[in-house]
Amino acid sequence: MARVGSDPISALNEASPVSAADRVQLLDVLRGVALYGVFLMNLVGFASSSIMATEQQLLSLPSAALDFTLLDVLGWLVADKANSMFAFLFGLGFALQLQRLEGRGVDFEQLYRRRLTVLLVIGVIHFFFVWTWDILHLYALAGFLLLPLRRLSNRALVIGGLLLAVFGRTSIKTLAEFGSPGSWSGVPGGYTDADVLLRQQISESGDYPRLVSNFFDWVFIDYIASGMILGWLAYALGRFLIGAWVGRHGWVSRAAEFLPGWRRLMRLALPTGLVLEGAATILANASWVPEWEHGEFLAEALHLLAVPVLAAGYIAGIVVAFQGSLGRRLLTPFAALGRMALTNYLTQSLVIGFVLFGIGPGLALAGKIGTTALFVVVTVVYFTQMAFSHWWLKRFAYGPAEWVWRAFTYGNMPPIRSSKTRGVSGE
After folding, report:
1. What residue numbers bound the domain in which 376 lies?
2. Residue 427 has what pLDDT?
3. Model-level pTM?
C-alpha cells in the first residue's frame, strides 16, 4: 500500500525496477533453464504433424525413425513440464515483488496493473503478428486475476491452484477432442492435411498478410470461439497460485535455509514423476502395448498427475544443485538467460518463424525438417542466446525488451547502461 498521507501516483513513480543486487539469482537460473524446454517444445510442437507438417511428410524424412523416438522422449521429459515451471515461476516472482514493493510502502496493485497492461500489449502484438502460440497475453490476463487473490490463505492458494490447474488441463483436453467449430480451409477441424498444406502454401509464397489472416482465423475459431482460452487461463492461474504460495514462504529466495526439504522433495518427486510420465508415454504411444478401451484415459490421467510432480522434481533438483559449489558454477550461466527471459522468448519466436515459414529470408522448412534436426537448432540457438545475454548484461542493466517493459511500467526511462559501464565511461 502507499505510505500514509502520500499521493499514490507519486508513490508509484518512486518505485524503481529491481536492481541486479536485489535479484534472486536462483530464480533467474530456474527461469533460464525452463526457457530451453519452452523453446524446444514450441518449435518441435509447431513443426509436428497436423500443425505445420503432415504425418506423411514427417514419415518420409530420412531421420523419421529417430525423430519419432526423440519425440516420445521429449514428451516424457519435457512436454508440459517446462511451461509448468515457467508459469510457476511467474507466480513465484509475483509473490517476491509483492513482498519487496509493499515493504517499501509502494502501491503494489497499481504498479502491477500497469506492468500487466504493458505485458498484455506486447503479448497481443506478438500473438497476432509473430507467434500464434504466444503465452504472454495469457500470463497477463491470468496476472490480473491473480491480483485480487493475493490475500488468500496458504491453504486456499494451494487448493485453489491445484483445482484450477486440473480443471484447466482437463477442459483443454476435452475441447481439443471435440474439435474446433470450423476450419481454415473449410474442412471441419482445422488440423487436416488440407489445412496443413494450405498453411505451407501460404508460408512458402511469402505472403505475410495472408499468413497473419490465416493465423487469425485459427486464433478466433480454435482458441477464442471454442472457449479453449478459458481452459488455458485457468491452467495458467492455477500454476500461478502455487508459485505465489511457494514465494510467500521464501522457499526459493532463502533456499539454503530449506535445503533438507528441497532434498526430500527431489528424492521423491523426480523418480515418481519420471515413472508416472514414462508409463503415460508408453500407454499413449508404444506400438507393442495391447489395445485397451480405457488405455487413453489412463494415459491422460497419469500425465495429468506426472506433470506437476516431475516439474517439482526438476525445480527441486536445480535448487539442490545450486547450493553446491560445482552445481552453482554449472548453473550460474543460465541466470543471464533468465534475466533477459522476455527478450529471449521473443527472439525464439523469430527463430521459429525463420525456420518454418517462407516470409522474407525464412527457410520454409515446415514439413521438411524433423525433430532431431530441430533439437539441434534449438540447442545451438539457445546457447548462442546464453552467450549473447552474458555479453549484453556486461554492458547494459536490462535486456532490450525488459527495458521497454520497465520504461512503460514505471513511466520513465531507466538508464539502460549498467552502473559499471557508466562508471568506466564517466556517465
Report:
1. 8-182+192-425
2. 32
3. 0.90
